[in-house]
Amino acid sequence: MPVALVGFADPVLDAQACFRAVLDAMARPGSIHQVGGTLVAPASLCPAAAAVVLALVDGETSIFIDPAFADAADWVRFHCGVAPTPDASVAAFVLAPDLPDLRSLSCGSDEGPEDSATVIVQVAALGEGAVYTMMGPGLQYPRTFRATGLPVDFVARWAENHKLFPRGIDLILCAGDRLAALPRSLSITGG
Q1: 190: alpha, beta or left, given left = phi > 0 and alpha = psi -120 to 50?
Q2: What is the domain extent for residue 138?
Q3: How many domains does the chain have?
Q4: Using one digit for the tens of pLDDT, what is the confidence trace for 26-57?
Q5: Which of 19, 23, 64, 98 could form a disulfide with 91 if both were Cys (CB 3.0 to 4.6 A apart)?
Q6: 121, 115, 135: which is closest to 190 by C-alpha?
Q7: Cα(184)–Cα(191) distance, integer angstroms
Q8: For 82, phi and psi rounded to 5 degrees?
């Protein structure tokens, strides 16, 4: 098997560990988790983003892969059993090198808010850079998180997304072998 097609060393255990990390990150917004450290992925993907894709995407979900990650399309097809969709507006997952226009993605419906998209976005770093303050479910008190690589208008764009709650987009931020999650239920200030 070519190195480019290598995924998790132990597909079952590694996928379960990553899935648990994503769940914990969603339950504890802004917390940083390590995943995918031993994963061999396409050059454009950081290990955490690749691990999240392997853990969450399967043949029954849809994923849009930004053209910047074109080298990952065959890898995702091979490991996840799904052909990437060319239309981000209908995708359950969006893999992006930076924050896309959230208004262009599926935000679910009042009857099915769970049908919204989850964006897996690579950022330059987690735990350093701009400081953001979060409030909402899962947080007893306001909490801060730091990230490098979110757009300068992130807080305004997030406020538009948050207004849609319970509909809206969830984010999984990935940098190197680290991830953090920002569920749509959060209000975020700062930057």
Answers
A1: left
A2: 3-190
A3: 1
A4: 999 999 999 987 888 899 999 999 999 999 99
A5: 64
A6: 135
A7: 17
A8: -140, 140
Beta bridge partners of 134: 143, 188
Confidence label for 3 from pLDDT (cuts 50, 70 and 90)? very low
The pTM of this model reads 0.94
Q: How confident is the model at residue 2 (pLDDT cuts 50, 70, 90)?
A: very low
Alpha-carbon gap, residue 4 to 151, rounded angstroms = 31
The phi and psi torsions of 74 (rounded to 5 degrees) equal -65, -35
Cis peptide before 166 (omega within 30 of 0): yes
Give the whole-angstrom CA distance, residue 132 versus residue 41. 30
| In the chain, % of residues over pLDDT 90 | 87
The domain spanning residue 167 has which CATH number?
Answer: 3.40.50.11310
